Amino acid sequence: MAVILFFGRFSDLSERLDIDLPDTVTDKASLTAFLSGEIEGFAEIAAKPDTRISVNMMVSMNPVLVTNDDEIAYMSALSGG
Known about the structure:
Helices cover 20% and strands 23% of the residues. By secondary structure, it is of the alpha+beta class.
């Protein structure tokens, strides 16, 4: 089960999610697309250029694979470090 955390602007939309990811979710882009369909307003915030995503406490600007064993955090640039 993946753990998805929300910080900064994202925390206004959702609390922590413990979720079994569907087979179609394999990377950060597909996870963002999936969550955009599940959480109202998520797509607008995720599209902002200062959005950061960490997988297992590692922030990466490159495409990263995600699995049900990961902790994934969505955060805005001003949400702290």
